[in-house]
Design brief:
3-stranded parallel β-sheet; 3 strands; about 50% helix; single chain; mainly alpha
């Protein structure tokens, strides 16, 4: 069962700010919004596919990870792939 979560604007801005500074922090902060502490050495293992963000928020975080100006292009590509593999899944929101 996948836990779906729509981040508040404040949460999304915080995650994106963290992701721009360090892609790992972006992932850690994203899961913190789900109530999961990835830094807890005694915490349970996490399957990223069990968590999902709206696709538009998922893409915004991915763009922040890829948008960092402090790393080279190869590192940006690798970090974005890490987001795809280690970050949560996404879901499409129904049209309103």
């Amino acid at each position: 069962m996948t836990t779906e979560l729509t981040l508040t604007d404040e949460q999304l801005m915080h995650v994106c700010t963290m992701a721009l500074n360090n892609w790992v922090d972006g992932i850690v902060e994203t899961f913190a919004c789900f109530g999961v502490d990835l830094l807890d050495p005694d915490g349970p293992s996490v399957n990223p596919r069990d968590y999902a963000l709206p696709a538009r928020q998922w893409r915004a975080i991915a763009e922040c990870i890829a948008g960092s100006t402090s790393i080279d292009k190869l590192a940006k590509a690798n970090h974005t792939l890490d987001w795809m593999n280690l970050g949560p899944s996404s879901f499409e929101e129904p049209d309103e």
